[in-house]
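Researcher: Structure prediction, please.
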Amino acid sequence: MLELYLLHSSSIFMRALTTKDTQSVTRRGIRPFSLLTRVTAKRSELCSNCGWILLLFVLHFPIIGRASFHCVYQMSEEGTRTMKPSAPLAVVAGLTLALSTTGCTDPSVSATMKSIDSIGTVSIESKEAIDSANKQYDSLDKELKKELENYDELKSANKRYDQLLYSEITKEISHSQEILSSYFAQQFDTKEIEAAKTDAQAALDASDTDGYYKVYKALKKADKELDTYIKDEKKKSYSMETYGGDNPFRLEESDLPSEWSFKPITLQSSAHPSWVMSEKKATNLPTYVYFFINQSSREYTYQLNQIPTKAIKVQNEDGKMQTALVNTEVQFTGQFDQVVNVDPNKELNERPAYFFARAKDNAIVLALQNYDGEDYYVLYTSGS
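Model: Predicted structure follows.
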């Protein structure tokens, strides 16, 4: 802090000492006091050097530091008041300094401008910096606000941040709708996320910029909780979501290979098909499916049906039991005369089966009910 002491009304005490030693000032009976960026205060005191009345002015300069001005007069042993030899130069220098520094910036204004500059490039993480700058700006009086050289930058930062929040809220609302349609959300308490989504949409509709941040944080928190739950539940399922909507685990006809060649992923008893394959014999004939059990099979056709999501127990590659969520049911129908061409496995082959995509690699999987009467499904893939 730079403090200028103009003494004796007609003279300026000089020899500007750029020091922060307040004792050199207080020893002379002069107490520094805070003022704004111009000569705005004055008071009279007795000079400790010469005993004359002095007139004190104070200026503050936040960058330079403190400068004290000492009396240009001295008292002789006889009590005569004389000017020091360096006084004329000191007076001129003091006047020059005093006149050249009356326009310096107030510390609070400087601090506010620095706070605005620290915002930098506005991002969704800029709230703390922007709030700090706004708070400092609001604390300034009307006159000091006029001295801000970068106020337009603060206005621009506020506007940009509102735009970013609007965009992020819109994205979060869209994400909420997506995850709420997930099968797994059916087992989750969605009251919080539904309420947060409603509040967020209301804030956008009302252009309530003051409320943007609050609804954004609330919705993001609720979305994250459901995201985490869904992620954990997906880890438990052998199958994966392939589509949105009511049947997220479904497979369409176009997802299946044009020619089937499925084999079991784990070794089964001879009662099970060792190979399930398809063949298109003519354009005017349906695609036939063959279940080779003990190297013998009959012709079957198939029909895909999309059903509500259900869980089935399957045996994975390690022989362990897992849950697979399915939507695509396969119904097989024998295309032969059971009296003439007997297939002892016809009833077993015509039981409902399922298609789904494997979670770990998106492979197409055919799940057939166990042929030994066990309560799990045997899995077949084309890569087995």
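Model: The two ends are 82 Å apart (CA to CA).
Researcher: Thanks, that helps.
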